[in-house]
Amino acid sequence: MISALTRAADWSARTPKRLWAVAFTLFFALSASWAAATPLGGSPDEHAHFIRAAAVARGQLGGPEVMVPHMVAGIEGKFAETGVQLPQWYAQLPKQHECYAWKEGTPASCAPALGHSGKTVQVTTAAGRYHPAYYLATGWPSLLVKGPHGLYLMRLASAALCSALLAGAVVTAAEWRRRSAALLGVFAAATPMALYMGGMVNPSGGEIAAGILVWTALLSVLMSPDARLLNRRLARVGVGGLVLINIRPLGLIWFAGAVFFALLLQQRGVLGQVLRRKALWAWTALLGAATVGALLWAGAHPDNSVINTPKTLTMKEAARQTFGNTETYVHQMLGYFGWLDTPAPAFTWLVWLGVLAVLTALGLVYGRGREVVALLGMLVAIVVVPVVAQTLQAEKLGMVWQGRYLLPFAVGLPLMAVMTAAGRSPEGSFPWRRLTGFAVAGLALADAAAFFWTLRRFAVGTSGPWVPFAAHWAPPGGWMLWTAVYTAAAFAVVLPALVRDREPAAPEDGLGQDGAARPWQQRPRVPAAG
Q1: Looking at residue 83, what DSSP letter applies?
Q2: Does 80 have pLDDT greater than 80?
């Protein structure tokens, strides 16, 4: 059985194009399963993103400002939303989740049916000030198919975008000599929450997937140098960076953070070689132009919402509450579904946190000076960044921080840790393949458990039967179909992590002891026992 899995993994990783195609297909199956198994509007603010995407696809990049009474985190206020002209049935989207969101025992069957009226009316969206690039990429299916089917296709467009970015990260990690360990880092970073958001029409999905690609490519450039692979790795940094920067203003901060920590981990002399590449400056120019464009867009579309925050919500109080919510934010980065009302089962959290803890500990044990400082700094940043961000905004916006906001940056922790440990540990000093096998099997099982648990909540509510045979709500195709698809894809997508590691680079390759990959055509060595 083990040898058969290894042969299948080797087949999938035989060429970069094949590996990308396999990874894309499986990640798309995972995100598409979330897209099908989640009620329309059943994820945070998705109704606003549906409307924004449909409007942008119709050429409406902006619109008149409309002040809409709203309540966020128990605080009343008026949101500055954007008015757009769409078919009347879009106006019913905000009501789709109201009967079951934050009511864990209520299945999604109570949601009213969407109408079919094609009469054009003004509809408002809270996402109207966001950069239109993501919405153009996901909103075009609404021009082809009307009604709910068009909304599902919009989700699939988002899933395809995110899957392409994640597949790029898989191919990049597979270029390492100890590629099984590097791939484990990618799969640990792609949490159930990352895959869930990838299947929704929400900028968070693209942010997180782009963050994983940026981190993987940056660390490969600076920690596992290979002159033959440098241009394509820089291209992946550039593509991921363009997506990250053009989605929301926070993306620029996350990109800068990834660059900072990657520079801390760089091998001696690598930066000078990278700076001499023309490709670097070409991508830097593109990223610089994207940054200017994103900042100009953000400056021209300020948030004029008025939130009646209580006087007791001072900066000190906001910092205290945010720090106290650290555990909740960590759980939200791993899996908090629906409108943050459906936490993943404890099994999912324990397995994922266990894998992350082992990888981080290995990075600290095998790391040296700057590498240990970088890992400890990342751990501190994961706690401190939300505190600082919410403290600065709480008096204006209230306590609105969610764990997924930090995830495009926090995905760097498992990637930094595993690449540090894999690059520093001597040959034969640690059973990487055994650790990888147990870890990816646990992650796949935990991922499938999170999917089933969430689908059950939508089908019968948390108080319903454990196996929802008599489902009150069912996704297109039925809950059994998507549970089977997701479970199969969850185990198959981690299969490349079982691939045989590459031979150590020979001195004549000019790659030194950096752990860089040999050419794709090189036959993999037979691993030692254990």
Answers
A1: E
A2: yes
Region for residue 135 given its phi and psi (left: phi exceeds 0; alpha: psi -120 to 50; beta: otherwise): alpha
In contact, 167 and 27? CB cutoff 8 Å: yes
Region 50-60 average pLDDT? 96
CB contact at 8 A, 411 and 208: yes
Distances (CA, A) of 220 to 23, 171, 267, 519: 19, 11, 11, 15
The tokens describing 29, both together, are: 């199956």
Which one, of 73, 79, 53, lies nearest residue 150 by Cα?
A: 53
How far apart are the C-alpha atoms of 283 and 216, rounded to whole Å? Answer: 17
- Residue 530 DSSP SS3: coil
User: What tokens were used for 465?
Assistant: 């039967």
Residue 507 predicted with pLDDT over 50: no
Q: Between the CA atoms of 355, 360, 364 and 367, what dihedral angle is there, to the nearest 10 degrees? A: 100
Q: 21 Cβ partners below 8 Å, 6+ apart?
A: 167
Which residue from 434, 528, 419, 439 is spatially nearest to 179, judged by alpha carbons? 419
Task: Give me the pLDDT at residue 378, please.
Answer: 97
Q: Which residue from 436, 441, 428 is spatially nearest to 492, judged by alpha carbons?
A: 441
Structure-token match 């981190």, residue found = 215
The model's pLDDT over 277-317, given as tens digits with 9 standing for 90+, comes to 999 999 999 999 999 999 999 888 888 888 777 778 888 88
Burial of residue 377, with CB atoms counted within 10 A of its CB: 0-12 exposed, 13-18 middle, 19 or more buried: middle
For the stretch 88-119, pLDDT in tens is: 999 999 888 889 988 888 999 999 888 777 78
What's the confidence (pLDDT) of residue 119? 87
